[in-house]
Amino acid sequence: MDPLSNEIKVLIIDTLNLEGMTPDEIDTGAALFGEGLGLDSIDALELGLALKNKYGVVLSAESEEMRQHFYSVETLAKFITEQKK
């Protein structure tokens, strides 16, 4: 597993208090919201703040593109990697 993807999974579990869940249980390519992991808009805000604090990425709630970045662990990892360049 990609180390960044695993870090993001651990961050999701810790930030959102998903007790009893392991990183292996989160599908890297699955949707985080709705039908996938089932996160909601409040989870998105908490996760966004955690990502900003840990990785220093710039997030914009108004951006439609941001919704695409938050689709899955895979898309978040790609976004963080691009922001670090």
From TrEMBL:
Gene3D superfamilies assigned: ACP-like
Domain of life: Bacteria
Organism: Rouxiella silvae
Pfam families attached to this UniProt entry: PP-binding (PF00550)
Protein name (record): Acyl carrier protein
Domain Carrier: 2-84
